[in-house]
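SAMPLE LOG
Freezer: B-3
Tube label: C17
Construct: single chain, 463 aa
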Amino acid sequence: MLWFRILWSMRVTMGNAKILSPAQIRGFLEASDGIDFSGTDRAGVYQWIEETLQGYRYSQQSKEVRGVLREFLVKMTGLSVPQVTRLIGRYLHTGQVREQEYRRHRFDRYYRKDDIVLLAGVDEAHGRMSGPGTQRILQREWRVYGKPEFERLSNISASHVYNLRNTTTYRRRCVVMGKTKPTTVAIGERRRPDPQGRPGYLRLDTVHQPEQDGEKSVYHINAVDAVTQWEGLGCVPKISEHYLAPVLEAMLEQFPFPILGFHSDNGSEYINHAVATLLEKLRVEFTKSRPRHSNDNALVETKNGAVVRKHMQYHWLPPSHADAIDAFYQEWFNPYLNYHRPCGFATVTTDAKGREKKTYDVYQTPYERLKSLPKGQQLLRHGLTFAELDRIAMRESDTDFARRMQKAKQELFRLCARAGTSVPAPLGELAKTESSPANGSSPNHAQSRSSATARSRQGGPRQ
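STRUCTURE (predicted):
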């Protein structure tokens, strides 16, 4: 038997097509047995099927006639019986036989464009912190400060923060700073301090701003508590005991708990009689770094890069503005670091071989960490309560305070830039910014700064 396959284009419309009776259709099917038909255009095939079903009023026909029409459609289109059955079912359901468009499966978009813009604003205010740190900020904005615009972002994972940062919307709105360049500091130690979970054991180091045309810049004094990561910063024009001692004493008074230990590297700015006398007067344990033990002062070294270098950058800052920078630290930067910037705290696990593994899975502000310690109220300075500190912490949300801090910092940089171009820049202009001195600062901030200035003047004016 010879088989034929006839190909034809399905462009026939009901205007020029002849309506056959069911008997004629049966006769055609029997006569065309062994001959196959197929359409060359899917859209044309679907259109012809739709017009045929409409012309024969398929939905009003009996079951027997429907079966004949189904065989007729299978014969004329070359489609399989299940395919034709599905197309007929689509016609009965919608009244049409149309080619369905392909729709790729996609997950529903949870975070909208305004959420990404909000994240960019948070990163701009806080200096683009790590994913877990930013996650904690977003949680606190909603759960602690009750800001409704942060409700969706409060549930974001730390890893998805980086996904949103890679979006075009984020990149158009946020300037990304490069990673901090690590610096090598020669450290060594006689004995490593052991806080045993008690706050008050400080790690200190000095950060020097780059020079300009051979002229020295200011020096930042960084002090970090080993348990709570409570941080205090000060600024001096020269690295000598003449300038360092009064600022250092004022910094120690800013911590809300008694100072029990003082740990530094072997730099001469700390290893001198003036500092030793000060610590002896305060009855503070004084330790130094050990040789070939670089982790002894690792905490404050990390803060030098992640905090000081990130915010104060690598610009030359005139030594004549050391007082203005120190005032900015006491009024804005130190309160921001301790009440509004989460830090990572390690959970230490020990395996069967005695090896320790640290996982930074807890992110809290230093003040939150202090409150979470056992018998926290007993750890505070005499006369200081958590109720007083709570009022400071809750006065503004993390991001609102960070924005005000950034504004004060930019004003400070403008004053320093004017001084660098030999344009007079009066220090009083810093006080004319929108802030008030006590906004977000601890109870001892104003008093400590005043006493530091007085002591500095007693020892000689800053140059």
